[in-house]
Amino acid sequence: MDTVTRRKFLIASGVVGGTALAAGAGVYTIADILATADDPAAASAGDRTLVLVTLYGGNDGLATVIPYADDAYHDARGEMAYEASKVLHLDAHTGLNPAMTGLKAAYDRKQLAIVHGVGYPKPDRSHFRSMDIWQTANPVQPGTTGWLGRWLDRAGRDPRTAISLEPVLPPILAGASCAGAAVPLGSVTVPKSITAADLHALGSTSSGEPALQARAAACFGDLASVDKLLTDALAEDDDNDGDHDNEPATGTGGAVSTLKAQLDLVATCVEAGVMTRVFSVSMGGFDFHAGERTGQETQLKTVDTAVAGFLERMGRTENGRKVVVMVYSEFGRRVRANASDGTDHGTASNILIAGASVAGGRLIGDQPSLTDLDHGDLKYHTDFRDVYAAVLADVLGADPDPVLDGWDGRLPGLLT
């Protein structure tokens, strides 16, 4: 099959991002990542691994980490508010959403810390603009490089040092001279006219073919092994967990593969001892302008099952105990519920940081006031760059100053 036809087929099937494949760079297979387990650099690249979980759509922080003892919360949320008896209590004032039993257990084990009121100056309520700000770490003028991409720039790293399990590389992993690798997951939907022989040809390389054509074949051929790996991993839990529906991403972003499937693959890579120091995974579907309570619980249950299960698995190995997970979204929601039992785009929210080495079992910072508001929105008190600086220094062993353009704030005491 010629290169152009193969490329068009792969792009149309959602196997890889069109720009990345057309450029012949940035797209890797799972075999490429696992091959680095034998690389000497894998053992010396650093002590810890960052797993970044992006929740696209604007996750409601007040429905995730709930100030259940605050009368202003109940006044603002009405029927959407949770009674104290329903919340998973963290202290006498604050609790987790009732769907988050696994992460509550991690908190009790002191392996989960929650940072209250995270945001940035002059917040933007556009999904895309705000996510650009978070990923580039520039609230004034989002640039063309992500904060982890700039970390890669300074380290001069192999692209496999930071990978995204999404169809295209997110801006957060794009640097000026280096970039992370996209390792897209998922299956291919093909026309009925495509035969098994055609599929085999798509995934097979030929002697002497151009490098781009060989890369396209490898990307396609790798889908079979990835799909089998994910199917086997999910089958182990089928009797106990029904939350494996493969919901598509929303228009505001998120990978097509389930969050659990992505984290299962991350776990396999970590256990194999690959050179990757940063894994970027994601989930969409948090933009609840109506009927939020039920929908939010369903989404948070999915997050809880995936992340808590991942943390439990990581606790079994030395490599896994060096993993730090950070969960964030582009903004929180308005304090007051709207007329459709939902919430509209807001500002400050929470960041969850978890792992065996995290100084957990604590709430970092104060819950922002629910009455002293900025035009109906929470006032942030922790700049997200303080969190990034701590992650860069404590998890990745990097100097935050050049990566964050001289930002000198830092969240203290992130790890034990």
TrEMBL record:
It comes from the Bacteria. This is DUF1501 domain-containing protein. Residues 235-254 are annotated as: Disordered. Pfam families: DUF1501. It comes from Hamadaea flava. Residues 235-244 have a biased composition (Acidic residues).
